[in-house]
Amino acid sequence: MTLTRISITLPRDLLAAADQRAKALDRSRSRVLVEALHAYLRNPPPAGLVREPAPFAYAAQEVADARHRHLVHDLELSPAERLRRTEELTRLARQVRPRPRRHQVVAFDSYEDFYEWKKVKRAGA
């Protein structure tokens, strides 16, 4: 038998019940779920008895659509405009939450090395 790994999302209480059952039977969670799926496929409920749950009420699709529209709009901008907007957002973010001041230790082998570093730093400032 060839096995395939999948990912599923279950309600926490259902997963907890499956884990309890697996522990009581001294089997793995996967084995218990495979057996449950086999039993369901052997004896499916009558049509219409089982319904899919209603979509979640937190508007996941609307958020995904809005993010997609935003992405499409941003990709229409020139690279220079996207960079300008990124810099502006970074500036605004730092106003809201400033970066903590960094403490840096700089060592030099000689005073001449320090002097050259200081000249470059002053020229760049």
Explain the overall architecture:
With 125 residues, the chain is mostly helical. The protein is built from five helices and no strands. The chain starts with 11 loop residues before the first helix and ends with a helix. The protein folds into two domains: 1-53, Orthogonal Bundle (Arc Repressor Mutant); 60-96. α1 packs across α2. The protein has helices at residues 12-25, 29-42, 60-75, 79-96, 111-124.
Topology summary:
Layout: H1 12-25, H2 29-42, H3 60-75, H4 79-96, H5 111-124
What is the number of strand segments? Answer: 0
* C-alpha end-to-end distance: 69 Å
Radius of gyration, in angstroms, nearest whole number: 30 Å
Say what the CATH topology of the largest domain is.
Arc Repressor Mutant
How would you sum up the major sheet?
A: none
Query: What is the ordering of alpha helices and beta strands?
Result: HHHHH
Q: Kindly estimate the percentage of residues that lie in beta strands according to DSSP.
A: under 5%
Overall geometry comes to elongated
CATH architecture of the largest domain: Orthogonal Bundle
Q: Helicity, in percent?
A: 55-70%
Given the helix and strand composition, which structural class is it?
mainly alpha
How would you state the average pLDDT, rounded? 86
Poorly predicted regions are none
Number of domains: 2
Total helix count? Answer: 5
Q: Which class of the largest domain in CATH terms?
A: Mainly Alpha
